[in-house]
Specification:
about 35% strand, three-stranded antiparallel beta sheet
Length: about 110
């Protein structure tokens, strides 16, 4: 959470984590990370999801091969989405279930896809 001009924002950061297939990936990770916050308001005729894309950078330590459980350095946005918008735009339904649904999809564009 971050406050900018008296408005609360929800931050979102991506961290590379150790995985079973790390040996077949070219490091640093080269690709795109697609983020979608699902709009759960079924009462809207056309509920719109919130989308963002992070393009990796080979000079960022955030995309180096993880040595421990996950890289300490992540990449993202401290001001990803306004907290008020999460409720007013239907991303979080409160009550009865105060749940935020975020889908993350990464595509490797390096030599080994």
């Amino acid at each position: 959470m971050k406050t900018i001009n008296n408005e609360a924002f929800f931050g979102l950061f991506i961290h590379m984590m150790k995985g079973d297939n790390d040996d077949i990936i070219d490091w640093p990770f080269d690709g795109k990370v697609f983020i979608t916050v699902k709009n759960r308001d079924l009462n809207r005729l056309q509920p719109e999801n919130f989308h963002d894309t992070i393009v990796t950078s080979s000079d960022s330590v955030a995309f180096e091969r993880p040595v421990l459980y996950r890289n300490e350095v992540g990449i993202g946005h401290p001001d990803f989405i306004r907290v008020n918008a999460l409720y007013s735009a239907g991303f979080v339904k409160y009550p009865p279930n105060d749940i935020l649904v975020i889908k993350v999809h990464a595509i490797c564009t390096g030599g080994d896809e």
